[in-house]
What does this fold into?
Amino acid sequence: GAGVSQTPSNKVTEKGKYVELRCDPISGHTALYWYRQSLGQGPEFLIYFQGTGAADDSGLPNDRFFAVRPEGSVSTLKIQRTERGDSAVYLCASSPRGTVNTGELFFGEGSRLTVL
Amino acid sequence: AQRVTQPEKLLSVFKGAPVELKCNYSYSGSPELFWYVQYSRQRLQLLLRHISRESIKGFTADLNKGETSFHLKKPFAQEEDSAMYYCALSGTGANSKLTFGKGITLSVRP
It folds into this structure.
């Protein structure tokens, strides 16, 4: 009875390395969201997919961050040339509807990224 | 731009005391407001949404457009209410995103 699944749960990497974080949403959910949560902060929006396309990527902080969802299901968040400031918990959420205002978001447990 | 402000980081009360977790928002249109909760070692989950006008686990929240607030209230706190609470806002457009506040830790002591 699967909820949103995120892997890895923990990732430690060195500054300058490339990282991929994976999200497997609830089956049938068309909408998928990525958030980033730094210590002491609320979840910060990064990007939202409706199906295969990115409907809103306005939260991606810079061009080192990129996300894909090629088949409209699993999504991968990619971070190039990681920096210490990228250290955070990266949350994925899915929703059965296209808009958040009529439905709820179902969150994964997050991927904790630490950049040394 | 949409913004959510939770002015307090921590609220500590005794069991049976009333609870009010404050949330103020900024949004130019008609927002949809939510409260999400994260219990220890669990994932973030929806607690309630203002359009449903529901009471969940004894919690209620009323949208006050004049004061741009959506405070979460419970008359008698229980120990199991101890958690992190986030207020969140969405616009009403087709691709609206959910914007969260910084959250508040509620600690209910026995």
